[in-house]
Amino acid sequence: MEGIYWLRISAVAALFFGAIWILMPTVLRQSAEQRLSAAAQTVEAPSHTSAALELELPILEGDPAGLAQALSDRLRVGGVSARKVDSGGSKVTVELGAGATLEGVAALASPAGEVKLHAPDALQPAAEAPEGSELQPQLVDALKQTFGAGADKWTALLPKLAHVRVEDATVAVPIALSDAEIADDGATGKLSWADEQVLPDTLPIVAVAVDGEVAGVAFADGRYFGLGQPDQSAALLASAPMPGRLGEPVKVGGDAPADATPEPVADAAESSVPPWLEGLLPNTAISLGLDLQGGIDLTLQVELDEAVLGQVARDVTYLRDEAAKEGVDITSVKRAHSQPVLNVASPEALADVQAFMHKHAAEYEYTESDGDVHSFVLSDARQEQVRDQAVEQVLETLRKRVNATGVKEPSIVKKSGGRINVQLPGMDDVQAAVDAIGTTAVLEFRMVDEEFDDAYLEQMLADARQQMPEDQYLDDDLLNEWLYDNKRLDDDRIILWEYAPDPEQNNKEVRTRALPLKSEVVLTGNDVNDAGVGWDQNQQPYVMLEFKPRGGQIFCDITEESVGKRFAVILDDVVQSAPNIKERICGGSARIEMGQAEDPTKEAQTLALVLRTGALDAPVVVASVRHVGASLGADAIKQGTIAALLGSALVYLFLVIWYKTAGIVADIALTINVLLVLASLGMFGATLTLPGIAGIALTVGMAVDSNIIIYERIREELRLGVHPRKAVDIGFEKALVAVVDANITTGIAGIVLYSYGSGPIKGFAVTLLVGIITTLVTAVFVTRTIMESITRSSATRLRI
């Protein structure tokens, strides 16, 4: 019996200290963030009357807005904190954040950032490798994989090339570095360049120089590794070259000395937690929800009917290919306008066409024939299936896009009617969220109809403008439908437009040029393997596409057959560019020019993001958007904390006054109960929200209720003269059924709320269900163990 007693005491201690251990990462993170905030305020505002450090950089040449954007990108990648970077007149203004210095800005603002490639063995290495130029382990492994036994030559040569000055480039092409990571042992990333054949046909490995100084090496597949200790070269390489020149920065505001180098705040925060302690702690920090942290709440509506029409359009290409393979005489397969109907033209007998459709597209049902043209409609069951699949595909793609933006603990929930709710805690740029998440990103390549008469095109559009209402004429879908219905345009042609911002209309996107295109889509976004941002010789950004093997072969064949013709790159039914095919392009890559975009760099980055993560099978529209300010979350946390502390203090005081010694035991059990609830949330990766805090408050009330039921039964036994030890045993045994019944009925309600409720209700239900379990553990096990420990002695008097 003695052994069982100590085992139970040990279990209670394990519950308490285990909960503390699980909650330690959350406590340390919150305290670190508070120290960061306090330190940042100290650095940014040394006194109540001082202003943040502000610098001005004179513009020597170039576009002010472009220079400000490029400098902002460099500072961000280089880790220099800047609150604001603005352009105005003949200068660029920078307001520095915590830990930033004038020297740090100057180091990234003055270099041109010109990137060139060189043959490593053609360079003159240094006599000795500079200090700190040991090769990264990943680079050594890559050399061994590429050169085998010959890798020793490179491991000896490359360290001596670190920061070597070079002149003429072996290869000079626009370069872009994506996925850049700057670590203590050097920088890594993925290089991309305009001509995919540059490296495979010439060099297996190249040295990458920034402003005439070797910064790293790159392999044929684009893998980049920095040489030597990381410096601003990686930041210059990962951002756009300067579209002009800036002068030296001059301090114009703030009390912080220009040459001061404040201690990095992050280092101070990190140093407060010993590394050995961090290694012992679990990865169980509790994340704050949107209502506590602030952020953006989006509700997106999936256009389900468009998903069905898109599926029918994809079936057109599939049926054409199958007919060609089997030698079936199918003249054409076309989708009826705005209907899930396929019109199959064939001189074959109707029975043969039906047999072909039944074999390859059984989900289509025959409806009618008009001569040799037979109509098949997509069945209702298949349409419903396509709608469901479209929502699931949009849901999965949105998860990829949100993850790619780096938002922590997002919430993406499917609702009824094709709606999807997206919550992005910590994000405050609504437009950036809509651009990155709500963009359909349907990428298509179509051939331009070079035989289409330009004069007829102008006359056709002029007639449409005169006869159509203005708002309908400006809608590309309605315009094409009118042209089809009025026999102005054949079914195998489509008119799409190039768009550009109009300064006279507040940069609203307006039509600039109409292009007659063939309706057949030769390539889509599904054929794209990767996408990144590059810059041309005029320092203008573009999106670089890398095709999958099948897409690369199709692109190669098309460019070989269509030299001298144009092909259109279309994104969401808008022509991005329509270049002439000058020669066969078989490198498996292509590029999308950003044209006259208002913010080409930002739009290129957004487009590359959505193309990397995949297009949406169906268009989505933003049904509603709500911006939750961080101050609201801070106020909620502050008010919730005050309410919780005040309420807990009153409950604790009541228990001690009313139940005396037993009340102290209940207070201990109640504390362990709350710790177990919070530890469970952290252990299972749950997100704490305002409804979750309400669930914790309800858990406290239920725990107190359970203790009251048990204590009143113990009091009854004591009034009958039963020994305290025996009274405790009888009280817990007789009250157990009532306590369990009360928690089970509440648990059933929690399960219903979780099963049928939405996000906030589910958050409340999860906390409630966890609280029920912890309440039973603490009320039945923890409280009883402590009470039995108090009444072990036969002479003990229990004050209750």
Number of strands: 30
Strand content: 15-25%
Strand order in space, largest sheet: 4-7-8-9-6-5
Work out the helix count. Answer: 22
> Largest sheet, if any?
6 strands, antiparallel
Question: What do the pLDDT scores average to?
Answer: 78
Question: Low-confidence segments, ≥5 residues, pLDDT <50?
Answer: 36-51, 255-271
Spatial separation of the terminal alpha carbons: 26 Å
Q: What Rg do the Cα atoms give?
A: 34 Å
- Assign a percent range to the helix content: 40-55%
How would you describe this structure to a colleague?
The protein is α+β, with helices and mostly antiparallel strands and 800 residues long. It is 48% helix and 22% strand. It has 22 helices and 30 strands. The strands form eight sheets. It has a six-stranded antiparallel beta sheet with strand order 4-7-8-9-6-5, covered by helices on one side. Strands 1, 2, 3, 10 and 11 form a five-stranded antiparallel beta sheet that branches. Strands 18-19-13-29 form a four-stranded antiparallel beta sheet. Strand 8 and strand 9 form a beta hairpin. The longest helix is centred in the C-terminal third of the chain and has 54 residues. The two termini are 26 Å apart.
